[in-house]
UniProtKB/TrEMBL annotation:
Cited InterPro entries: Bact_Sporulation_Assoc, SpoIID/LytB, SpoIID/LytB_N, Spore_II_D_firmicutes
PANTHER family: AMIDASE ENHANCER, N-ACETYLMURAMOYL-L-ALANINE AMIDASE-RELATED
Annotated transmembrane regions: none
Protein name, as recorded: Stage II sporulation protein D
Domain of life: Bacteria
Amino acid sequence: MYKKLLLLFIILSLFFIPILAKQAPDLKLADQRKEKKCDIMISVTGVDEPIPLEEYVVGVVAGEMPADFHEEALKAQVIAARTYAARNTDKGAKPIAKDVSAQVYRTEAERKERWGKAFKQNEKKIRKAAEATRGDIIVHGEEIISAMFFSTSNGKTEAAQNFSGNPVEYLQSVDSPGEEKVAPTVERKLQMTLTEWNRKLGLKWDADEFRELQLVRNQTGRVQKIITGNYETSGRQVREKLNLASTDFNIAYDVNNQIVHITTLGYGHGVGMSQYGAEAYAQKGWTADKIISHYYTGTRIQKINLPEDECLKSS
């Protein structure tokens, strides 16, 4: 009896071992495929732990764009934010600021505090936009672009050359109509005393300088430089020193009360994608891809990639 059982065991072993051996390589390959997951980690200044890129862009869109925007505008912002992060951190190799010096990032706790009862709804909407564009970045040729964006235009975006003095092929001036219909404020007015004006700009002006004042505008309608007497400076310098909304401004001086009146159109530096412009186009039926190709001239969208050895991370 014992010999018969032993013989049966040997026969069964010979039958099953080849099957198990045949299956093993497939299981191993499945495990390897599971492990091939590129998870770029973003180190944000002031945040304790690095954040996966796809999680990071959710926090950026929450900080940079109203959650009630059209889903295609949100998708465009996600793609721009992901591209900006990929380029400016060298795909996670360098840290990035949490504020407007880079792009605003809000943690989940900050999002909950900011949105209150609308948190779940807003979070779901932004995460949906992020998932729909997962891994998408903007390139020009083989280069990840500098995906600059801003709030509101004056009807046109600004060319990089006018802003920085350096031409960038994909950051040209393009039309951005209809923003006044979707933006809460396109025109802003402010005033300051002559004393405050002089202090902020380091000047000693009186009424005579304002009478001679010339605002030299570029092709986008923004002030490229201001000139009066022996004084000349850029519109960008004036905007930054006076904390103006944009470089599309007008200046009027009230001689009797010694008050400087300033009117601005738009909000932000004006280069790249206008966020309210993206919303206006989305409401017209434009897709995120079309919005991106409009604001970033001659670019295309592709999936972000890493060298093979950097992709082998445990899931």
